[in-house]
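hey can u check if this looks right to u? its 261 residues, i copy pasted from the old doc so theres a chance i mangled smth
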Amino acid sequence: MLRSTQISLKSAEEQAKLRVAGRMAADVLDMIGEHVVPGVSTEELDRLCNEFIVKVQKITPANVGYRGFPKTVCTSVNHVVCHGIPNERVLKTGDIVNIDVAVIKDGYHGDTSRMYYAGKPPVLAQRLGDTCREAMWKAIDLVKPGMHLGDIGHAIQFHTESAGFSVVREYCGHGIGRVYHEDPQILHYGEAGAGMEIVAGMVFTIEPMINAGKRHTRMLPDGWTVVTKDHSLSAQWEHMVLVTPAGHEVLTLGSAERAGA
């Protein structure tokens, strides 16, 4: 495990830029929510996000061309765990979809994702999405100097497995700044008290992926789309978190969350 001295700790100026980038990423997800309805294609959702980022916000969509990714957002529907590529697939009533967006503003990245439902979701799907969000927030609430990265993973794993679901282990959260994905890696399972100590100035994502069935995944031939091996539903939520001297600040709150803060 890397020592904290090897992690990029963000200065006050960098934190301010990440705060702006994070809010702009959240604004994209605020915008797209009303468009996630039965009959819309994930390609259309991607087009709307791109147009908003490029023409309204006048910033850069970070995913386009990133390691060859062809679209603006990831749209992961039903049993897709992550990195779903938008296409002509049309959402049906009851479908669940994670939309994951990243933007670049003044050289700094904002990265966040949410679950959306096309019409009324099945009870299991709603419970899965709710459990994932709760697990993310239980982990975020622990973030402060002196805690350990293992505390984050343990909180997510305990809450998820207590609800009868499983945690995906192949993918994790990450440090973020000028670089899209940097150290440290933020695992969503683990032992309390284990791993690197959390220190002020760190900025990283917490983005658990949980499955209704078993935790195992496989990648499709496109080299991006990850699905559950047993074809069970999967959910993901993601926030960017800044570690402050007194605790933490979530940089990707949506407008409704900011209003309620």
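The chain is about 30% helix and 25% strand.
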